[in-house]
Amino acid sequence: MPNILVIAHRGASGERPEHTIESYRLAIEEGADYIEPDLVMTRDGVLIARHENEIGGTTDVAQHPEFAARRRTQSIDGETMTGWFTEDFTLAEIKTLRARERLPELRPQNCAFDGKFPIPTFDEILELATAANIRRGGARKIGVYPETKHPAHFAGLGLAQERPVLDALQRHGYGAAGSPVFIQSFDPRNLRELRGMTSLPLIQLLQHELGDLAEFAKYADGIGIAKVLATPEGVRAAHAVNLKVHVWTFRAENEFLPDDLKSGPAPAAHGNLEGEIRRFLDRGIDGYFCDFPAVGVRVRDAYISGVQLLHQPLTATNLPGNRPQGR
Ligand code: G3P
Ligand code: CA
C-alpha cells in the first residue's frame, strides 16, 4: 500500500501565523506526519524558523524604534532586498519580536494572532516534537523536514548552516539513520555538502524544471517540486531513478486553486482543496506540503482506504468506519 506523507508546510500555516510554535503544535494535533521549518541564522549563529532572512514581512520589527537603523538594502542570492535581516540580530534581540501573518488579505482570521507569538529556534521546534513523541508513547514519531534558506549567503557571512542543522537534529534524537527526517534545499551545493556529513535523507527542491534527475539521485533521496512540475510523466521519471516525489504547496484559498476547483471569485474563500490533492495523489506522489494539515491528512487517509478497498473484499472489519485510527 502507498505510504504518502503529509508535511505541514510552515506548520498549520493556513490557521496560525507561519513558523510559530503554535503553528507547529496545531499541525501535530491535526496528525501531520512531518512539520516543516524553514531555517535562517541569527548574528550569533542560532538557527531560527523564518521563510527568509528578511523579517519585515512576518514580524513586528518595523514597530520597534530601537531597530529602525538596522533597515538596509542588500543583494541575497542575486536579488536586491530591503528590510531587516536576521543576520543583523542576536537571538536575544529576535526574541523581543513577535510574528505577524504573512498573508493578511487571504488569511484575515490569522491576524488575530499577530503580536502574540515569538520567533522559535530550531531547538525549540525539536523540543516541541520531542514532547509530542513522549505523549504518544511508542507510537510513530513526529517527522521534521527542515529547509536551509539562503545557505550560500549565510556561509559567506561565516554562518554556515550545515553543521548547526545536523547538530540540532542529533541533540534531539533525530540524528540517527532511520530517523523521520528529510533535509531540503534549493541549493545543490548545500545538499552535496550535507551528503558528505550525514546519511539522513536529502531532498532537492525544484521550482521551474525537473532538470537532470539522474544527477540529483547521486546525492539526494528525493525531489520536492512545485505542483506545475508534478505531471504523471515527471513523477514516473523521478521514480525511475529512485527519487521520492514530494509536492508543494497545497492551500485551500481560491487564490491558489485551479479555476475549476475555486468556490467563487473571492480570493480568500476556501475552494475544493480536497479535489486538488486527490488529483495529485492519482499521479503517484509520495508526499505533499500542505498549509492545512487536517485536510491533507483526511484526504490522504481516505485515498489510502480507497486503495485498500480496491485490493480487499469488503468485510465488517475493513469498512472505513471500522478500521483502527492512528496513522
Ligand atoms: O520547502 C518546500 C516548499 O516550502 C518550498 O517553498 O518557498 O514555501 O519554502 P517555500
Ligand atoms: Ca520550505
Shape: globular
Spatial arrangement of strands, main beta sheet:
7-2-1-13-12-11-10-9
Largest sheet, described in full? 8 strands, parallel
Task: Return the domain count.
Answer: 1
Oligomeric state of the chains in view:
single chain
CATH architecture: Alpha-Beta Barrel
**Terminal residue distance:** 13 Å
Bound molecules: SN-glycerol-3-phosphate, calcium ion
SSE order, one letter for each helix or strand: EHEEEEEHHEEHHEHEHEHEHEH
- The number of helical segments is 10
What is the CATH first-level class name?
Alpha Beta
Rg: 20 Å
Please report which band the strand proportion falls in: under 5%, 5-15%, 15-25%, 25-35%, 35-45% or over 45%.
15-25%
**CATH topology group:** TIM Barrel
Average pLDDT score: 94
Helical content class: 25-40%
List the uncertain runs. 314-327
Give descriptors for this structure.
about 325 residues, TIM Barrel, 8-stranded parallel β-sheet, 3-stranded mixed β-sheet, 13 strands, globular, disordered C terminus, binds calcium ion
What does this structure look like?
By secondary structure, this protein is of the alpha/beta class. Helix content is 28%, strand content 16%. The strands form 3 sheets. The chain has an 8-stranded parallel beta sheet. The protein has a 3-stranded mixed beta sheet with strand order 4-3-8, with helices on one face. The chain has a two-stranded antiparallel ribbon with strand order 5-6. Helix 8 (232-240) links the parallel strand 11 and strand 12. The protein starts with a strand and ends in a 16-residue tail after the last helix. Bound molecules: SN-glycerol-3-phosphate and calcium ion. Residues 9, 38, 51, 147, 184, 205, 224, 248-249, 289 line the site of SN-glycerol-3-phosphate.
